[in-house]
Write a structure and sequence with these properties.
The chain is of the alpha/beta class and 340 residues long. The protein contains 13 helices and twelve strands.
Length: 340
């Protein structure tokens, strides 16, 4: 059996609580007692248990990352893992561990968060935006627990959150189309009510409108973000039939297609190739985010990239700041998008 704190206390002739106070650098312990305890610990080669020391100090040096980890999550939500790696790296640099907690099967995620707070199993939580709701938000705020949400919550709140500026990413796409005079342009998005798709479309259309190019409703196509729907939309757009006045893209083959995400881009790339068109000579082709598919597509699209790993690093730094300063309010767009 290893040396315990009781062994040190017995050798130094003090109580266990005194040894604990010395190990935690209490100022109320005399210099003479401190030296005696330290000498006993050194002679016995005693090493304090880090978890016990942190518990005595009232902290765990642990952050819980709360998310959903369903089967296939790495493919359906690859950005989450890049963000998670960035958070982990920054927390480790600041002396914290990170525990990953899956709540995809939790019927009442609010109870999970209440347990974390009540059991003091972490100094704070980082929450992926997909698992936050009004009930859990109210609990976190009421208990004043250090937290940071990845993604802008879609309800009014006093939560701390960070996100990427998807509207600005859409503006970058519009800037590319304007620079290359790739008109008319068609935007193929996800579902009309999807937040990220809506923000990217909004930025894209607003930028072009400011530069006297109006993207009308017949130049915007909504899908379920499947490669098949992207393919079907592109085939209809690029195989213009003059007799079909209702065809997406209006009354002529577009000079560019902008895909809101990589999955849609897979289908569009396939359609462009099947029709024997060249990129960018016949049609400019653009999407958002490098992962998961843009690097392997043929033809290859231009990409508006957001460094989500860096976003995770910054989120890690911010939760550390929040722990040190509980009154700090963080609601910020971070990590600017850029053309690859």
């Amino acid at each position: 059996m290893g040396v315990t704190i009781r062994d040190v206390a017995e050798k130094a002739g003090v109580s266990v609580s005194t040894v604990s106070k010395v190990m935690n650098h209490w100022k109320t312990i005399s210099e003479e007692t401190t030296k005696r305890v330290e000498a006993a610990a050194a002679e016995l080669k005693y090493t304090p248990n880090a978890r016990a020391v942190n518990f005595a100090r009232g902290n765990t040096r642990n952050i819980i990352y709360l998310t959903e980890l369903k089967k296939g999550e790495a493919y359906s939500n690859p950005h989450m893992f890049d963000i998670m790696c960035g958070v982990f790296t920054e927390l480790a640099r600041n002396g914290y561990t990170m525990s990953l907690m899956d709540i995809s099967d939790e019927a009442h995620p609010k109870e999970t968060i209440r347990d974390i707070i009540d059991q003091k199993s972490a100094d704070g939580i980082v929450i992926h935006g997909s698992v936050i709701n009004q009930a859990t938000a109210d609990l976190i705020i009421d208990r004043s627990f250090p937290h940071l949400v990845i993604g802008h919550p879609d309800f009014d709140n006093r939560l701390c959150w960070v996100d990427t500026n998807h509207e600005l990413a859409g503006e970058h796409a519009g800037e590319y189309i304007l620079k290359h005079n790739a008109f008319p342009t068609v935007f193929i998005g996800g579902r009309k009510n999807e937040f990220i798709s809506h923000e990217r479309e909004k930025g894209f259309r607003s930028f072009l409108l400011r530069h006297k190019h109006r993207v009308t409703s017949d130049h915007v196509v909504y899908t379920s973000s499947t490669w098949k729907e992207g393919y079907e939309a592109a085939m209809k757009i690029l195989s213009y039939d003059s007799s079909d006045a209702s065809a997406a893209g209006g009354n002529q083959i577009p000079g560019s297609i902008v895909c809101e995400n990589n999955t849609i881009a897979v289908g569009v790339s396939r359609a462009i190739k099947e029709l024997g068109l060249s990129v960018p000579e016949d049609v400019a082709f653009l999407t958002f985010d490098v992962y998961p598919y843009s690097t392997i597509l043929d033809p290859k699209p231009e990409v508006v990239e957001i460094n989500v790993y860096d976003m995770g690093v910054q989120a890690g730094a911010m939760i550390c700041r929040k722990i040190d300063n509980p009154g700090l309010m963080i609601q910020s767009y971070i990590t600017l998008p850029e053309m690859e």
